[in-house]
Amino acid sequence: MSRARSNEPLRRVLNIVVALVGVALTAPLMLVVALLVKLDSRGPAIYKQPRVGLDRRRACGSDAENHRRSDDRGGLVFTIYKFRTMTIGSQESGQKWATQQDARVTRAGRLLRATRVDELPQLFNVLKGDMNIVGPRPEQPSIFAELRGELSRYQERQTVLPGITGRAQLNLGYDTSIEDVKKKVELDLEYIGRRSVAEDLLIMARTLPVMVLRKVWM
Question: 3-state SS string over the chain?
Answer without folding.
Answer: CCHHHHCHHHHHHHHHHHHHHHHHHHHHHHHHHHHHHHHHCCCCCEEEEEEECCCHHHHCCCHHHHHHCCCCCCCCEEEEEEECCECCCCCCCCCCCCCCCCCCECHHHHHHHHHCHHHCCHHHHHHHCCCEEECCCCCCHHHHHHHHHHCCCHHHHHHCCCEEECHHHHHCCCCCCHHHHHHHHHHHHHHHHHCCHHHHHHHHHHHHHHHHHCCCCC
